[in-house]
Structure prediction request, 123 residues.
Amino acid sequence: QVQLVESGGGLVQAGGSLRLSCAASGHIFGDYAMAWFRQAPGKERDVVAGITWSSGSTYYADSVKGRFTISRDNVKNTMYLQMNNLKPEDTAVYYCAVSVSGAIKYLPSYAYWGQGTPVTVSS
Prediction:
């Protein structure tokens, strides 16, 4: 069974930075991808950034391009999201997830989810 544990969320002022981590345990077969999603109150869960585990190819939502950087450590089985120049509209619960098919933008492909870590950006 795959387990994902996020950490690194918190309260930060606009313009500040946070680094989220997602530690994965268990074994995942195939050419999978991992991604960060976020969900603000009353809104849908949307993909923020994703990375294919084998090649390291990345995807970013337009709203975070140039501000967020996704990366992974194959040895530690950990994914990161460096978030810079945070804005109040980045406030949400952030989740990491695994797409067993590697289709980063296809929500139904995600089979494993973390419990989420809250990020609050004050103005």
Remarks:
- The chain is about 0% helix and 50% strand.
- The CA atoms of residues 41 and 60 lie 21 Å apart.
- The mean pLDDT is 94.
